[in-house]
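Inputs:
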Amino acid sequence: MTDSAIASHDEHYQASFGSKYIWSQDHKVIAIQYSITAIMVGVVALVLSGLMRLQLGFPDQFSFIDPSAYLQFVTMHGMIMVVYLLTALLLGGFGNYLIPLMIGARDMVFPVLNMLSYWTYLLSVLVLLASFFVPGGPTGAGWTLYPPQAILPGTPGADWGILLMLISLGIFIVAFTMGGLNYVCTILQARTKGMTLMRMPLTIWGIFVATVMGLLAFPALLVSAIMMFLDKVVGTSFFMPVIISLGETLDHTGGSPILFQHLFWFFGHPEVYIVALPAFGMVSDILATHARKNIFGYRMMVWAIVGIGLMSFVVWAHHMYVSGMNPYFGFFFATTTLIIAVPTALKVYNWVLTLWKGNIHLTLPMLFAIGFIFTFVHGGLSGLFLGNVVIDLPLSDTYFVVGHFHMVMGLSPILVLYAAIYHWFPKVSGKMLHEGLGRIHFWTTLVGAYLVFLPMHYLGILGLPRRYFGMGGTEYIPESAQALNANITIAALVVAVAQLIFIANVIISLRSGKKADPNPWGATTLEWQTPDNPPTHGNWGPEAPVVYRWAYDFSVPGVKQDFIPQNVPNSAVEVTDAAAFAEAGK
Amino acid sequence: MSIFTKLMEKPWLAQPEGADPALLQPPPSYWPARTALRFLLVTITVVFSLFIMTLLGRSQLGDFHALAGEPWLPFDNPTQLWWNTGILLASSVVMHAALVLLRQQKQQAAALAVVGSAFLVLLFLLAQFAIWQQLETAGFGMTSNPASSYFYLLTAVHGVHLLGGLVALLWVLKRFWQQQSLARIQSSVRLCVTYWHYLFVVWLVLFALMTSSSSTIDSLAALCGF
């Protein structure tokens, strides 16, 4: 940011309560607003998953869960988790907090737009939650909202619920676009002196590419939402085929539901990486910092992020193998799906090689980061099965898929989010989170989540169908499957309750936690070098930082400390062995 | 420096003290609004491209009948649409004139040109609305045929983007009103000019598509693999 822009920004800053905490234009406050809203709506989705598990584990024991309610829980759980929690928390929360601090900027380049982005996001959440209170309740069409069933009578929430869902998604996309333009422009335009693109931490690379992807992918969801809205409200036939519903021939004239699927997944698959790439970036930085070692293959990691971003736009139809398609089409998408596994696997190897012979500190962020490597590898490997047409066809409608995607894009990003919260909480709040509570939280979550999602792969191979309220006439499924389902439910409830430990930890630590050092982990990136902890408005005091090196100078030979912050020039490094330091190329 | 060169950098290598190219090179020009507009235009392009792709896909189903190509179809002789195109072109030209006037430091004339351009956009929107009514009267309502549905949808989405542009123009007019610096006003108007020209080009594409005959649409669809 130029000096004049900084001056102009500070000039407009007023520190009244409203402008500081409610209508704030400060990226750090907006990040916290985004995070709290996302976590609160995420808790709603977590409760919904608990209700689903109650029905699956102990069928028909709970009178308030009928088939309609069950489908509504499934739908709202999925949509909230993917869009309103993960996307919002990773980009709106961490993106907002970390981008200006990590690149040495004083704020986002459009602070007003940033504020509007949050309030628009909040509106989208409120519209979505309002659907719980309208006649018929929220939509139960499944999170993919496939027509024709999504808008036909008989589907739960087909009157109001689906409309509120579509409107809410539209508002969310507007919010995302406002935020996203801010993120990319800030990264491209407001980097401090010396912060070249290739000196940016991988967190920023992940957020940057994910945001660009979002700007290209969310339009597909917007387009499909507008067209389905018109099919429902006006009676057009974009997606609605000629159809007889409840004995009555409807006026629709022969639209294509498959067209909707293409649009939805053209958004839906990049969305997986919109969630994954920021998580990849953050976990890279956390692993390097807590292993006191430079990230292995930085350039390859950047290329992999960019490559995954590009490739993610040509794999979408692997979600549609069961919809039927030209075999060559299936072959193409199976091939691209397997190819995208290459840069992804490369990242996994690099994380493991970063740990190799590192000075590993098993801190809380590190535990969650290592946990992520496990769950991501497991989720990724089952993805190799599902990417192939012939294996996907029998498995697609079973719990194998539920196990797979929860491992790879449910549990994995959630573990990274926890790693990130434990890592950056001292910077955000100035307090350390409680170590003991954190460890209980980690082990209960990791072991519990494995007990939930690993057996689902087995249930899927047995043929247990997903989305079903009850197993009814599926006699080929053995009794033992039900016993396993009950165990999964118990594990899921334990994991859900264990999250209260985390919430309690945050509250207790905020009130009476140990005061954090400005840089408790010995990190190199700029956010840990702020003059105040937590950083104040404008982040850097009178002088913006200057960057002299990349973000991964850990354990450099001949240097007294085992890290060199990005804003420390060579002449200011405390050297114990000049020859070793020189030989290390520093 | 191209993006490929940048991606080939080896940031782990030491840079000699005082000769670090990252610190010696001049900072990039600071104009975030232009960067934002470029990304926004890419996003809007994706929106329209996806609408058009769905149209081409949808056109291959039996109930789709193009709005031109036969004498009894409404856009076989789209005189009214040509008039509307002329109005939007005039709006774009007048907006460009505002920029030229600003370069000649004629602020008042430029402000008038901006208002004139906004007026022409409103006129265009009214004229589009008139076409909607004519189509409705002629039996080509929104649900009568998928091609009609697309015409209403695409023109509405295009219109919404124009309305968004008008909101941005209010900001620019505020800058004129507050007599802000010429450079600041000029940079805002430059962005508006880009946006106006862009939406004119989008309209030309939509115009061409909606007035195409079935055979032309079929050929385009075949080209896209439908």
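The mean pLDDT of chain B is 94. Flag for discussion at group meeting.
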